[in-house]
Design a protein that fits this description.
Two copies of one chain form a homodimer. The first copy, chain A, has 200 residues and is an all-alpha fold. Chain A is 73% helix and 0% strand. Chain A binds a DNA duplex (30 and 30 nucleotides) through helix 1 and helix 3.
Chain lengths: 200, 200
DNA sequence: TATATTCACATACGCAGCGTATGTCAATTC
DNA sequence: GAATTGACATACGCTGCGTATGTGAATATA
């Protein structure tokens, strides 16, 4: 029965290291995180790290992949819950703003990720969150609901607006108050992609 | 006569170091740039570096400030040339995005800057740029040309859109092609703040 | 103008941290 | 059950940052 096979134990250590990586990278940032401390906090040594992930960047890539995947899932769920279409897109935007409020996500995925791993669209995770936005925009484009602009460009900039809103809210003295203004401004800008003048 | 005073020589070394910093950071990136090599290439040693800028990050901050200020100035000039107001604002955005084609700006300001100096909106140079945007938007608000949304929020998000567009162009495989799409999408989103549906 | 002081920068040193080369012991294979 | 693999630990070297200390030229002082 519970006889741990070798592959199982290896998977366990991978999970332990990724967990420790999320913590250390979020608290200290990638550059300042010591791999000696990180691995020790997981009850291991750097040997395990280099065996499993090749190098320090390899661990960052694994951590980013895990978080990015979870973000995409949450955004998609929110969009579906709102019924898809334009409402779904706005729900995704709001979700993205809320997700970007998480310091762990800010630091690891939004700041250190692009700096040390390069362009997010080149990541193995393929920036799934962006892909979800692209998919929804494509539907709307097929319905002729939005202006004839490059879909990927729109998706990236929309996500960029949400990101910037989140960063502003996070750094604000009064996050509650700022959040309202940020979401209003987000929806205001987003309305620019609709063909018809938005009512609200 | 050209008897160099001490302050003049010090200013010279600051300029030399910033120049070498721009080169090294652009070519190797901040993390991989060796301060020994950098200072040696300027005919100096690390002593000069730490005396003038405190530490490695201090030099990066100085380099980023110089480049970013020049970017803001160029954007402002373009805005003025376009006659200010809404057209000026759009011209500023376009210029900022176009500047992202420069590899030096891509690497230093758009990637390493945020990673090692933190949130760009906290940079001195970015705050100046933000204030300019707020001023322009306030004029438009007084004229009733834009929707009744918090001005600071709009300004921050508009700048965020331009910055994000620039980042995308910067990381793109085909910057020239991407640039067109990015600018179109930028103007599309920006149109969302206008009260009347934009014609184009 | 001779002496004292400052200060911009060089030199020297310690230490942290990454990556690699090597060792070791348990899990699989034959 | 002997041999082999492989997951991880241990040991080592090297790079590179920051700091403590030294030095000589520019300024201040008398």
């Amino acid at each position: 029965m519970a006889a741990k096979t070798r592959a199982e134990k290896m998977e366990e250590t991978r999970i332990k290291l990724i967990k420790a990586g999320r913590k250390a990278f979020a608290e200290k940032g990638y550059a300042e995180a010591s791999m000696d401390e990180l691995t020790a906090s997981a009850g291991l040594t750097r040997g395990a790290l280099y065996h499993n992930f090749g190098d320090k960047r390899g661990l960052l890539a694994a951590v980013v992949d895990e978080i990015d995947s979870a973000m995409a899932q949450q955004a998609k769920d929110a969009g579906d819950a709102a019924g898809g279409g334009w409402n779904g897109l706005m729900a995704e935007g709001r979700t993205y703003i809320e997700l970007a409020l998480d310091p762990e996500i800010q630091r690891i995925v939004l700041r250190d990720g692009p700096a040390f791993l390069g362009d997010p669209s080149q990541w193995p995770s393929q920036n799934r969150c962006l892909q979800a936005t692209i998919a929804t925009l494509s539907e709307l484009a097929d319905q002729g609901a939005i202006k004839p602009v490059d879909i990927e460009a729109l998706a990236r900039l929309l996500n960029g607006v949400a990101l910037n809103a989140a960063l502003w809210v996070a750094a604000s003295d009064d996050p509650k108050d700022t959040l309202g203004k940020a979401i209003a401004a987000f929806e205001c800008l987003a309305a620019g992609v609709l063909v018809a003048p938005s009512a609200k």
